């Protein structure tokens, strides 16, 4: 939603926060509030209201195009608690609520429908990008020989060595 703390301080994003330690603390607090409000609305409030499961589930099988479409489609399609499909209300309403709330404590946010819609759009696209990354991360990590959850580290001792 907003650039805060490190990059925001150096580049003086949200100049209403000021500079120095006080400006950094305000940016840090605003970033924390952005994250907390987004998680509250998208992961708790709206999923509870709509009986929706907001989590992303990997397809993991099938061709790359099918998996890409599945990941990108999560911005519109979610699952009810019983597993049936529904519109992803928690993504759109949660993001919209968090953006509207951020206008309260970000002094230099442009107000109005168009700037808010732009921030919502960027946030939903970023979430969709992370869903695509989640879908393909095991293959990427394997290709780059990076560790990922579920992969066992090879033992440094030989199989015939007695345990210490």
Brief summary of the model shown:
This protein has 164 residues and is mostly helical.
Descriptive terms for the model:
5 helices; three-stranded antiparallel sheet; 5% strand; mainly alpha
Count of helical segments?
Answer: 5
Specify the helix fraction band. 55-70%
The side-by-side strand order for the widest beta sheet comes to 1-2-3
Q: What share of the residues does DSSP label as strand, in percent?
A: 5-15%
Show unreliable segments: 1-6
Tertiary shape: globular
DSSP strand count: 3
Q: What can be said about the biggest beta sheet?
A: 3 strands, antiparallel
Average pLDDT level? 83
C-alpha termini separation: 52 Å
Order of helices and strands: HHEHEEHH
Total number of domains: 1
Radius of gyration (Å): 21 Å
**Class by alpha and beta content:** mainly alpha
Strand and helix map with partners:
Layout: H1 5-10, H2 20-50, E1 52-53, H3 64-73, E2 77-80, E3 85-87, H4 89-105, H5 113-143
Antiparallel strand pairs: 1-2, 2-3
Helix pairs in contact: 2-4, 3-5, 4-5
Task: Summarize the structure in words.
By secondary structure, the chain is mostly helical. The chain has one domain (5-143). Helix content is 58%, strand content 5%. It has a three-stranded antiparallel β-sheet with strand order 1-2-3. A hairpin with a 4-residue loop joins β2 and β3 (85-87). α3 (64-73) packs antiparallel against α5 (113-143). The longest helix has 31 residues, at 20-50. The protein is globular, with a radius of gyration of 21 Å. The model is unreliable at 1-6 (pLDDT under 50).
């Amino acid at each position: 939603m907003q650039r805060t703390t490190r990059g925001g301080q150096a580049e003086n994003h949200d100049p209403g926060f000021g500079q120095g330690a006080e400006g950094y603390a305000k940016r840090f607090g605003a970033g924390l509030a952005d994250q907390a409000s987004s998680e509250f609305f998208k992961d708790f409030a709206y999923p509870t209201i709509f009986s929706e499961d907001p989590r992303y589930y990997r397809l993991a099988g099938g061709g790359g195009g099918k998996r890409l479409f599945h990941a990108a489609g999560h911005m519109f399609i979610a699952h009810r608690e019983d597993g049936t499909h529904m519109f992803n209300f928690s993504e759109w309403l949660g993001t919209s609520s968090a953006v509207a709330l951020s206008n309260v404590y970000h002094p230099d946010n442009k107000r109005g429908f168009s700037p808010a819609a732009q921030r919502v759009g960027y946030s939903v696209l970023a979430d969709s990008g992370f869903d695509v990354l989640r879908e393909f991360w095991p293959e990427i990590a394997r290709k780059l020989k990076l560790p990922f959850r579920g992969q066992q580290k090879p033992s440094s001792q030989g199989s015939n060595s007695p345990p210490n």
